[in-house]
Design brief:
The structure is a homotetramer of 363-residue chains.
Chain A: E1 5-6, E2 11-15, E3 22-28, H1 38-48, E4 66-67, E5 71-72, E6 75-76, E7 81-86, H2 108-115, H3 131-146, E8 151-159, E9 162-163, H4 182-197, E10 204-211, H5 225-234, E11 239-244, H6 255-258, E12 262-265, E13 268-271, E14 279-280, E15 283-284, E16 289-295, E17 305-308, E18 314-317, H7 328-349, H8 355-362
Antiparallel strand pairs in A: 1-2, 2-3, 3-7, 4-7, 5-6, 8-9, 8-10, 10-16, 11-16, 12-13, 14-15, 17-18
Chain lengths: 363, 363, 363, 363
């Protein structure tokens, strides 16, 4: 596979299947000298945890994170930080109903084609549970970023065709859908109830905003800030699109509107608008980084669907059990995690852009 | 910088500024035994070349590609393939008007912040001319993919608010905007004329379609097919968004609609629809890979804009010279190139997914 | 740190300190379809285990390996394989004697200079215990290599100035020093007893021989077979040199002697001699791969030494506790592990060297 | 191939065959703000150039380096630096004598086995001429290192069985063999004359010494300083071994002798001896970095040898033309280059080891 490692200096490597013994991540390249406790990480883990409301699966996961290495007396030492979650809720279920069948909208068929074998229990490696390792690593990246005053914050901007009309970021923790607009939350909630009644699911959109970025992060020409964030976020299950600043709407605008004019304010270069979403030429431009990611509806639905099994027989399937009718609210913290990990890496990579910086460290 | 290399097995490393001596690319990891001539590459170079119609800059670039290594008697040898373009049209212009000023919508300010120095001639490394190296490498990747019957094809699907309503791929070479719909071309053409009259520019959308992909390409969980393509395409200048299959619209649909049902046809697994855009769980699913990328309007416009210079003084600027009022038509072949390079790499990476494949080579 | 990951396709990432909660490794990129059990790995772990004879430390480590992911019903699935060892023998000792002092020949001073913090318990990350993760990963690589008939075998060729004079590989498991010559073992044993009496330690040399390699493994010009093996083996603690084939003696020979002449045997190209040690131009040449690595004496000795502490005070130190008077016998399996991991990676990388191979998989 | 790129932050990618159009290198990740001219590089190129004395091949190579990008007004800009050498002396010779035959001690057979095709003209990619790209990149790395007072210096310590007995580094440029001992030079010179008379060749040993390294460079546990240097140097053609500090002799010594004791001098931690060769636990320890690399005799000899051709026929061969009877003197600057490139990379990687350093740049 070899695709389970990510990053250049701040590097992560994840492992684990939905119903294996454990999931986890090794973070290699985290600078020494950062205060870090299991609680720092647990806070984010709990935001991803299912079972906390009626829109999440009922699986009880303790999701209790353990730091196995790389931290000594509460401080990172510069050596690899290993974080692990034991899988405690692996009931010995009967999987005979899905072990041979290819669920529509799922990775089952692709895994079989690629590897010739598949751990079908709970979706194996393609389960949303895989993202718990991302969230754990993201919490460490977040601590690093906080030390230089960078803040990453995501929220649900749309569920189905219900879109947040005002954005009051503080509100996002006041509702289980993580929306920054209580009005939109009420409507989205009704929409979800309806979908659940129909044994169906819906999609949505998450927006992420990063403040405090110094200008110049991102490494042209391939590892640009927006390119790296795109890869990071599009590597999450169920994402189908991403856009920065005005995004797809920029394709309909004119240059005279889309260009953000510069001006001076208190001796600093500022932009009058932020159509760019905080990125110019692939580098942070001093404005807030703003992007949105689109998520498809949860593929696991109880409604009857047509499909085939691995013996080439056409079959009908109703996916049993309680599944999230929407992945978006739980994905919010995963978007933050992937963003934080990517920014931590680009922050460290940018350190050697100038010889002046090199001298600042060594002379 | 260290961001000018891309790929894992099929690796490229590019160099060159707009007005430097030359631009080029080294391709490391191209398999031995592929027929390759300069003409194979020149064909794609010519599609990117400016000056061929009224919507492109008037700069005359010969863009004549030279193969410096890695090919012997018309066949790739497995050693690095170096491709180079000399810059012939570097008139010793006067750049005093832009050397200190930060053009809105451009990377000038970010480069200065990151590196403390900037080759301002023609935009230096952030010039669209940088993409010529991508196109050259893409042509080699395309040859590789053709050997296993994979085809990459992109076209302009929208210019400003004019969208192609029918898609007849053959038509795309019949008009300078690379649109697959002659009707839409007429309207888009009028839109561009109007923008040019206003000293302004417009954006657009490119769609790309890949056929012939075996199922299973893409390396979960971070190097997924869609994640890798997203990075590749979003690393091009002026891109502001990307989406696969139903993309952002999927966020408004329901699972029962969005899931593509499987069926059997002539002993093969097929999908009844392709809402996924050919990717499930981050791997190719046997359907055509379909994605769209949004481009912002060209930032270089003759209209007057407000900005600042590097001494912190507020200034007004009108960008002289003739600039493309739209980047989209010339970006079509660059989208194909980045897609082909990414797929070539994932194709080679996928070879070792199964021990059976390893034995097929060595036993 | 970011130096705890290794490999390109068959990638490993290790973690763990001597007295932390656990040590382990994630293997990303192991092909699917290989039979693998914890026993396969435990066999190698037991060869590295201390306490099995009078020349090893008395620490009781169960070193019981656990497979956390990537294996389903006894078969690798292509997803990351996580292997973990819990640290069970972390007695809450008093480390006040070494927490501030820089032990001569150890990494203490360098860790403090690099990171500004150091987990001093049992040497932290620089403990020989770190190699257990390498051995675990090596056992998996060994299984992979066996599938294509490649065999890796190392043994002690010298201890201090006692050198094996005959090599009977089968003998190496008949003595605790892993020597292929029982006569040499007797002498080496006496040498060690003497060193221990003097509260001192000795060094030695390990030889490694790999059979069954197809010709052509290794990736010129930087990732040559010998270059990669050198890095792998020289990354083990206490190694001070490595040489291939005739090695340093080749510097004293003439070309007419050193060149291995080719001849035909049963339709195959063979070499009359193997001065090269099985590598030409950085690729396997069809002969056995042979190399030797030199190890310095264990730096932990009970003899009194002069040193300084982190407050810049000169101090005297006698390192308490029982330490291995020699690291070589326990390092034999680590040399095999690093060699196997490197070869597994190069084997997979070599698959795409020829377009013919690519077609063999996809057409 | 994919093995022609090297480095993590300071990354190089090389290309070129002996008789192709050109050779060169792209350096990606060199910090902005370093003064750099073609002359800085040419100085090292000239040290590698053949034809300057009777022990070098008579090929006249101008080896005139050209900077194609990444430098603006004499200063590096942080963008990729491309350096190129045109091949001017590619006489259209007749290669029919070697195009099918496998020269003993050469890579011919391995290239054919790996790639199924081989550019046989002058050895293609396996020619020593390939190292010119390394030297060019090394000259840039050297400039970077000088900015923080790090100096890399190599010399010939042995030719055949003639070993330098005293080391006066200044002397190395006083003789064509690059020996730091004029007495040894006289003897080595006689030895070479004799070998040439016999149509034979000899090997030798190069020693390299680096001063000014801060303690703590090197990234445990795989990218240790000595591991990285080993890979870098062992990737040069003809190297058969490498050792640090006491090297292989350390295997015969005792811990009480081999450990370097620390002491204080003018408020700084110093070592009384340097048996370690300047590296402890894989990091620079504040002492001079010292290592030696063994080179085999030039494989191209005029003496008759037995071999086979690619049709499986046994053949006799005498390699025509004048070849260096020894590669060592010309390899001295290549050893320096590979060392400098490796150290530049480790220097930049080490910048993010501590959070304090990160804050020093960003707060």
């Amino acid at each position: 596979m070899s695709g389970s490692a990510y990053g250049n200096i701040f590097k992560i490597s994840t492992f684990g299947e939905s119903h294996g013994k454990a999931l986890g991540v090794i973070i290699d390249g985290c600078p020494a000298g950062i205060e870090l406790t299991a609680e720092d990480i647990q806070r984010d883990m709990d935001r991803r945890k299912p079972g906390s409301n009626k829109y999440g699966t009922k699986r009880q996961e303790s999701d209790s994170i353990e730091i196995l290495s790389g931290v000594f007396e509460g401080i990172t030492t510069g050596t690899p930080i290993a974080l692990m979650l034991m899988n405690t809720d692996q009931r010995s279920r009967d999987y005979s109903d899905i072990c041979d069948i290819y669920r529509p909208g799922h990775a089952d068929y692709c895994y079989d084609q690629k590897y010739g074998i598949r751990d079908y229990r709970g979706g194996g490696r393609s389960s949303a549970r895989e993202t718990s390792a991302r969230v754990a690593a993201g919490a460490v990246a977040r601590k690093l970023l906080k030390e230089v005053n960078i803040d990453v914050c995501a929220y649900t901007i749309a569920i189905g065709n219900v879109r947040a009309e005002s954005i009051d970021i503080e509100k996002r923790f006041d509702n289980p859908l993580c929306m920054p607009d209580m009005n939109a939350y009420e409507k989205a909630s009704a929409l979800l109830d309806e979908a659940m009644k129909d044994c169906d699911s819906v999609g949505g959109i998450i927006e992420c905003c990063v403040t405090g970025l110094p200008a110049g992060l991102g490494e042209p020409v391939f590892d640009k800030l927006d390119a790296c964030i795109s890869k990071a976020v599009m590597s999450m299950g169920a994402t189908k699109g991403i856009e920065f600043g005005d995004g797809f709407k920029a394709s309909e605008s004119r240059g005279s509107y889309n260009n953000d004019n510069f001006y001076m304010s208190e001796g600093k270069v500022k932009k009058k608008t932020n159509h760019s979403g905080g990125v110019l030429g692939g580098m942070s431009d001093g404005g807030s980084l703003i992007f949105r990611a689109a998520f498809k509806p949860t593929p696991s639905i109880a409604k009857q669907q047509e499909t085939v099994n691995k013996y080439g027989e056409e079959k009908q399937i109703r996916i049993k059990g309680r599944h999230d009718p929407i992945v978006v609210p739980r994905a919010v913290v995963v978007v933050e995690a992937m963003t934080a990990i990517t920014l931590a890496d680009l922050l460290l990579r940018n350190m050697s852009a100038k010889m002046d910086n090199v001298k600042k460290i060594y002379l």
